[in-house]
Amino acid sequence: MKLITTILFLIFNLTLFAQSNQFAGEYQRTLEDTQNKHLIEYKLTLNQDGTFLFHSYSKINGGVPPEVNKYGKGKWTAKDNLITFSSNKQEDFDAKYTLDFNKSTARFVTKNPRDKSDKIVKTRLTFLESGIFWMERIDIFKI
């Protein structure tokens, strides 16, 4: 009986680990206006250990200042296809990491495995809500 319980426990833990595997990775989005020489880049890394790093870079021609780098970090959790981000004020904030991802939720979007059509669906995170106003409704694609 102990052996069966142990095996079931191990299988359960492996399935949990496998589910977080599909979310972990690097995501990126680049918005570029070549005519006016504007550039905005978002990079998000979801680590296997449940932590994340975010970097936003913007270079706006005629902007003050012309180049801006913003960083954020914290922890992420997944339930179904929703990823919830959180940042601890004592651990995750300093002079470099200033973005507050508390109250941020993103949906993991990928092609349904049962969909056998030729339709191409890029794997992405769509931010549904965020305390950072410019992050809402942003899609960041997995690379």
Brief description of this entry?
The chain is α+β, with helices and mostly antiparallel strands and 143 residues long.
What would you say this structure looks like, in words?
This is NlpE N-terminal domain-containing protein. By secondary structure, the chain is an alpha+beta fold. It has one domain (2-142): Beta Barrel (Lipocalin). The protein has 1 helix and 8 strands, in the order H-E-E-E-E-E-E-E-E. The protein has one helix at 2-23; strands spanning 25-33, 38-46, 51-59, 67-79, 82-86, 104-109, 124-129, 139-142. An 8-stranded antiparallel beta barrel has the order 1-2-3-4-5-6-7-8. The chain is flat, with a radius of gyration of 18 Å. The N and C termini lie far apart (45 Å).
List keywords for this structure.
single chain; 143 residues; alpha+beta; Lipocalin; 8-stranded antiparallel beta barrel; 43% strand; flat; signal; NlpE N-terminal domain-containing protein
How far apart are the first and last residues' alpha carbons, in Å? 45 Å
Averaging pLDDT over every residue, what do you get?
86
What CATH architecture would you give? Beta Barrel
The CATH H-level superfamily is NlpE, N-terminal domain
The domain count comes to 1
Distinct helical segment count: 1
Name of the top-level CATH class: Mainly Beta
Structural topology:
Layout: H1 2-23, E1 25-33, E2 38-46, E3 51-59, E4 67-79, E5 82-86, E6 104-109, E7 124-129, E8 139-142
Antiparallel strand pairs: 1-2, 1-8, 2-3, 3-4, 4-5, 5-6, 6-7, 7-8
